[in-house]
Write a structure and sequence with these properties.
Blueprint lengths: L11 H12 L3 H34 L5 H47 L3 H5 L3 H43 L1 H48 L1 H6 L3 H53 L5 H43 L24 E8 L9 E8 L4 E5 L6 H8 L7 E6 L2 E2 L5 H6 L1 E4 L10 H6 L7 H10 L3 H6 L17 H15 L3 E5 L7 H15 L3 E5 L11 E6 L2 E6 L1 H7 L2 H14 L1 H6 L1
Parallel strand pairs: 3-8, 3-9, 6-7, 7-8
Antiparallel strand pairs: 1-2, 1-4, 4-5, 9-10
This protein binds adenosine-5'-triphosphate and magnesium ion.
Length: 600
């Protein structure tokens, strides 16, 4: 997602698509609004016109029968116009809000289904700012666009008719001046639109900065980065204010200069009318009606001066939203994808990596190179290796967060690229390296492992994950809200919730990425015992730095720089004296002599 460029053209494509895909459900309401706006325009014209007969019969003819009728008629027109205008504004707002809400819902659904590489490429704060900003611009353009194209344009036509009717010569002169007024307002509109685009970029920066301060609050405090963060915020805010002020200046200039222009118009009309009046061709009734029509058009012209800006910004915002909607996911179900079928009873769920090479980005170093290994059905295999070796990457590929660059991964002989992602993910349970809790209750956080699980089952899973006791000590037990804005849990507590979630899932394939790394020895032992039960008859792939936790694995695969450098049982690998033996010895020394590790 690149930053938005100043947009000063009205793009037609996005509006056509908006109409086709999002406005159709509102066609009745749009029709209603259009009818009401046409009525508004006609009533505005009628109001200007009525002054002519009113002045004539009341001031010139002095007809007493009209004394009540005409003022009442004027009042009637105004009241009806007010009602009509209320109706059209409300129905237009409903259309604008409806279209934009549907658009946002579609965008949300799309972004949620993005694949990992797309999601990694986005900044959450910026996405949120864009999501709200662009929606506002599209809504403005939908409502202002319809008002401009229907109400204001037709009002000008109606008032023009009145002016031509009252004095066509004067009307011609006024009409001739219109292009100059239009050009002038257009120029102001351009300036304010440019400023709006730039201030939007700064708003995005501000959102990014704010979300980073929040997410990184502990680092910010520990490293005393507050002053720098505040200074940076000041910079962004100043930048933003500069652009906002430019826009405000352009908009502020619009009113007085338009008023000055109107003043010139009024002076000219008064002069001309008085001159005509002295020579007897223009009555005061014509003059009043003409002047009223001219003054009324002023409001419509002002509205129309924003029309162009709203439409060009709105079309750019809609185009950006569609870009988000149209982004292609790289990982998709094949057209002929079939559900992943595992045998109904164990042994099942054999995982095979066959010469797998994977690059996160096209021109980056491969995270995995020619990796081949087997996880026999129902067995436990451990992936070990130095940091950055590609262990988490291997798990990402099993879940098809990404597709392999070359080679293949199979589960029970079925190439993952040929099975549906839903069936694959249903039959796997993952505990991620950084356990994530949603801003919800503990029950919900565990329960999302298997939708529909009962409270009993949730508690059972929590007990198995050695989490029940600490959960019961929380202020509201299982109903305690955790996550972003809730009660903070320790790293080890979060891990146990995540393990409970995976246990509840009861899937035949279990993927554990450093699932017990934050636990103390005692809790780890309890969780390991529970996991050992859980792993029975399940195919399990575990990643662990603490090699004592993987010693019991049926097989250990050692990765280094994306390659399998050795594999075998704990005993075999120790005897071999390779990388594993080295890693194991270092840890053994570290754990035996903790001071040595601390001194490092
Ligand atoms: N989302 C990503 N985009 C690009 N490169 C990535 C991404 N995630 C990981 N990598 C790179 O891929 C390589 C393997 O990373 P991976 O996370 O698989 O390592 P790991 O073995 O799990 O390490 P650790 O033990 O530290 O968790 C690293 O060089 C890393 O920089
Ligand atoms: Mg990792």
């Amino acid at each position: 997602m690149s930053g938005p460029k100043p947009q000063r053209k009205i793009l037609v494509g996005p509006y056509l698509r908006l109409a086709r895909e999002f406005a159709l459900p509102y066609r009745v309401l749009i029709g209603l609004a259009a009818v009401l706006m046409i009525a508004e325009a006609a009533l505005q014209g009628l109001l200007a016109y009525l002054l002519d007969p009113a002045i004539k019969s009341l001031f010139i003819v002095k007809d007493p029968t009209m004394l009540f009728i005409l003022p009442l008629a004027l009042l009637g027109v105004m009241v009806v116009k007010a009602g009509v205008s209320y109706g059209s504004n409300v129905s237009l707002a409903r259309v604008g809000q409806g279209v934009v809400t549907d658009l946002q819902a579609a965008m949300f659904a799309k972004v949620t289904r993005y694949d990992l590489s797309q999601l990694n490429a986005m900044h959450s704060g910026q996405l949120a700012a864009r999501f709200l900003n662009d929606a506002g611009l599209v809504r403005e353009s939908v409502t202002k666009g319809m008002q401009g194209a229907v109400r204001d344009a037709l009002t000008l036509v109606a008032l023009g008719v009145v002016m031509f009717y009252e004095d066509w010569g004067l009307a011609l002169v006024i009409t001739a001046a219109l292009p100059a007024v239009a050009l002038y307002t257009l120029n102001l509109g351009n300036k304010s639109s440019k400023a709006a685009t730039k201030s939007m970029v700064s708003t995005g920066d501000l959102a990014i900065h704010l979300s980073e301060i929040l997410d990184g609050r502990r680092v910010v405090k520990a490293y005393r980065m507050e002053d720098r963060a505040i200074a940076r915020a000041g910079q962004i805010l100043a930048e933003r204010m500069k652009h906002l002020m430019k826009g405000a200046q352009a908009r502020a200039a619009a009113t007085p200069s338009a008023e000055a222009l109107a003043g010139v118009g009024v002076a000219a009309v008064v002069f001309y009318a008085a001159y005509q009046g002295m020579h007897g061709t223009m009555g005061v009734n014509n003059f009043t009606s003409f002047l009223a029509a001219m003054m009324f058009s002023y409001q419509s012209i002002r509205n129309l001066s924003n029309f162009y800006t709203a439409m060009s910004e709105g079309s750019a915002a809609a185009a950006r939203s569609f870009e988000l909607l149209d982004a292609q996911t790289a990982v998709n179900d094949a057209i002929d994808a079939r559900p992943l079928v595992l045998a109904p009873t164990p042994p099942r769920g054999a995982i095979r990596f066959a010469d797998v090479t994977f690059e996160y980005a096209a021109d980056s170093n491969a995270a995995l190179r020619g990796v081949t290994f087997d996880v026999p059905p129902g067995k436990m295999v451990a992936l070990v290796g130095p940091s950055g070796a590609g262990k988490s990457t291997a798990l990402n590929l099993i879940l098809r967060f990404y597709d392999v660059t070359s080679g293949a991964i199979e589960i029970d002989g079925q190439d993952l690229r040929g099975v549906t992602m839903a069936s694959l993910r249903e039959q796997t349970a993952l505990v991620t390296q950084e356990p994530f809790l949603f801003d919800d209750t503990i029950s919900a956080n565990i329960g999302c492992g298997r939708p529909g699980a009962s409270q009993m089952e949730i508690e059972g899973a929590a007990r198995a994950a050695a989490a029940h006791d600490f959960i019961m000590r929380l202020p509201h037990g299982y109903d305690t809200v955790t996550g972003e804005a809730g009660v903070r849990l320790s790293g080890g507590q979060r891990q146990r919730i995540a393990i409970a979630r995976a246990m509840l899932r009861d899937a035949p394939i279990l993927l554990l990425d450093e699932a017990t790394s934050s636990l103390d020895t005692e809790s780890e032992r309890a969780v390991q015992a529970a996991l050992a039960l859980l792993m029975k008859d399940r195919t399990t792939l575990v990643i662990a730095h603490r090699l004592s936790t993987v010693a019991g694995a049926d097989r250990i695969v050692v990765l280094d720089h994306g390659r399998v450098v050795e594999q075998g049982t704990h005993g075999e690998l120790l005897a071999r004296g390779g990388l594993y033996a080295r890693l194991y010895r270092t840890q053994f020394v570290d754990e035996a002599e903790p001071q040595a590790a601390v001194a490092e």
